[in-house]
From TrEMBL, chain A:
It comes from Streptosporangium sandarakinum. It comes from the Bacteria. The keyword Kinase applies. One of its GO terms (molecular function) is protein serine/threonine kinase activity. Keywords: Kinase, Serine/threonine-protein kinase, Transferase. Residues 34-133 form the Histidine kinase/HSP90-like ATPase domain. This is Serine/threonine-protein kinase RsbT. SUPFAM superfamilies: ATPase domain of HSP90 chaperone/DNA topoisomerase II/histidine kinase. Its EC number is 2.7.11.1. It is an enzyme of class 2 (transferase).
Automatic annotation (TrEMBL), chain B:
InterPro entries: Bact_StressResp_Reg, STAS_dom, STAS_dom_sf. Residues 2-113 form the STAS domain. Pfam families: STAS. This is RsbT antagonist protein RsbS. PROSITE patterns: STAS. Gene3D superfamilies: STAS domain (3.30.750.24).
Length: 133, 126, 290
């Protein structure tokens, strides 16, 4: 069993690294090709969010179990300004960073489980999970 | 930072993305292409993403922007070779790539550009 | 093992050897009666003879692993074959358990206390063998079910080529979310592999769809467009159309056709193929001579 891995997100090149590490983990867990692509895409979105909105953060990549099913859990955390209105942040097309406003809402659709914890001044924690079929 | 090379074939510019793109490379490619279109007077741009394993909203937006800029400079953009897994993910993400023409592969992309060119001439002649 | 138990066991072994004809004939009768109509006598005779010999051999040397494994191997083969040929569990189990009844008569004739002791021991042995037979039987059945489920998925998801550049998936049966996803991924991959720019998803054989399945169909059409191909959905039943509208699913500018034939005609037109009916050549002429 692979131990959970922590990766820093401080610059643009880190986003590429996160994608590569998440891809490797997704293959290991046994996700289908389409599910691998979904997880890596969500990871790319969330890593960029941490970089753009909080100036950086980190991701924890972890293999989880639920009975016989295996899954991949990613936890993105940052010490940025936090999100004042969570519902609004999860609305398609809503953005304060000049993006498309699909990062959070799109990642939620790409994953099986999605949890967002944030408050102004307290940073943001996004935890997402994808289960192997 | 890696730069993606832009190739010229007749009046078509061809870009084949072979690396895991950094955001800066994406922005650089956007600029390079706009310059190259003006410089060469190209009528069409083909972006081959056969080797691309993921397209997130940033890369997706780049594709749409390139298409919009090129159109303003009188060149049509065709994105070719998108993998099924990438397409399914983009749909789930909620990205429609509006205004971007697509084709299954490079060959069909070239045929599409020629077809567009041909029909424009036909319309003009009428 | 106590001395008397050992003696009992020995007594049974002797009976099996000395009364072989009588016991075997009785066993064949019982086993034959339970699975009448399924199996021909000669075949059963051969199978039981082999089992009987293996059983006797397994006593030859107490704890001889080879003898007992030979017996179990034969039993496994018998129950596997019976599971495949559709014998019921009872028919299969009676073959083994019938041995108890078959030997009981000889034990009764013998009448000695050793023989009765031995019969207890022999019963336990036969029970073990019977359980082993049933386990093999149900494992075989499970394997058959699994194989069939897999075959069904393969059978039900063909992507067929209708014309150069036009492929179709005729969907049959109930669609669940998982199966729809599998079919759709296969369709999109086929578009790439064959360079087809047109796809027809025919749902004539689908009795009903739920929201999720309708969404999957929709997403597939959009994904195909992103890849540079066009999808037509054909054979939508009235109930399904009703479901889709009631659920408020937006089908937008997706082309739908009543039948697979209409969808093919549409795809052909889109790819620039013209179909012309050749006048006259197909008309059957008959002249009646007066």
């Amino acid at each position: 069993m692979t131990a959970p891995a922590e990766l820093p997100i401080h610059g643009n090149s880190d986003i590429v690294l996160v994608r590569q590490r998440v891809r490797t983990a997704a293959v290991e867990v046994g996700l289908s090709l389409v599910d691998q692509t979904k997880v890596v895409t969500a990871a790319s979105e969330l890593a960029r969010n941490a970089l753009v909105y909080a100036g950086g953060g980190q991701v924890r990549i972890e293999v989880v179990h639920n009975g016989v099913r295996r899954g991949l859990r990613l936890a993105f955390s940052d010490d940025g300004p936090g999100i004042p209105d969570l519902d609004q942040a999860l609305t398609d097309g809503w953005t304060t960073g000049g993006g498309l406003g699909l990062g959070l809402s799109g990642s939620r659709r790409l994953m099986d489980e999605f949890e967002l914890k944030s408050a102004p001044g307290e940073g943001t924690l996004v935890t997402v999970t994808k289960w192997a079929r | 930072m890696d730069r993606v090379p832009v190739l010229k074939l007749g009046d078509i510019l061809i870009v084949s993305i072979q690396i895991d793109l950094q955001d800066q490379s994406v922005l650089a490619l956007q600029e390079d292409l706009a310059n190259k279109v003006v410089e060469t007077g190209a009528r069409g741009v083909i972006i081959d993403i056969t080797a691309v394993e993921i397209v997130d909203s940033f890369i997706g937006r780049m594709l749409a922007t390139i298409a919009a800029i090129s159109r303003m400079l009188d060149a049509e953009t065709v994105v070719v070779g998108m993998r099924p897994a990438v397409a399914i993910t983009l749909v789930e993400l909620g990205l429609s790539l509006g205004g971007v023409r697509t084709a299954l592969n490079l060959e069909k992309g070239v045929a599409l550009l020629n077809h567009i060119d041909g029909s424009e001439i036909a319309t003009a002649a009428r | 093992m106590s001395v008397s138990a050992d003696a009992g066991r020995h007594r049974i072994e002797t009976l099996l050897a000395t009364h072989e004809d009588q016991i075997f004939r009785r066993w064949l009768e019982i086993a034959g009666a339970s699975s009448s109509g399924h199996v021909d006598r000669g075949n059963l005779n051969g199978q039981l003879r082999e089992l009987y010999n293996a059983l006797v051999r397994s006593f030859g040397d107490s704890g001889d692993p080879d003898g007992s494994s030979e017996l179990r191997g034969l039993l496994a083969e018998l129950s596997r074959n019976r599971a495949r040929q559709g014998f019921t569990p009872t028919e299969t189990a009676t073959v083994v358990f019938g041995l108890k009844e078959a030997i009981y008569e000889s034990v009764g004739d013998d009448g000695s206390s050793e023989a009765l002791q031995g019969f207890l021991w022999f019963s336990r042995l036969v029970d073990d063998l019977g359980l082993f037979t049933m386990e093999t039987y149900s494992a075989t059945r499970e394997k058959i079910i699994l194989d069939q489920a897999e075959q069904l998925l393969e059978l039900s998801t063909p992507v067929v080529k209708l014309w150069e550049g036009i492929v179709a998936v005729p969907l049959v049966g109930t669609l669940d979310s998982a199966r729809t996803q599998v079919v759709m991924e296969k369709l999109l991959q086929t578009l790439v592999d064959t360079g087809s720019e047109h796809a027809v998803i025919d749902i004539t054989g689908v009795p009903a769809v739920d929201t999720q399945v309708a969404q999957h169909l929709l997403k597939t059409v959009v994904a195909a467009r992103l890849m540079g191909a066009e999808c037509v959905i054909s054979g939508i039943r009235p109930q399904i159309a009703h479901t889709i509208v009631t659920l408020g699913i937006e089908f937008g500018d997706i082309v739908t056709k009543a039948t697979l034939a209409d969808a093919l005609a549409h795809a052909l037109r889109e790819s620039g193929v013209e179909i012309v009916r050749n006048r006259g050549s197909r008309v059957a002429l008959r002249t009646v001579e007066e």
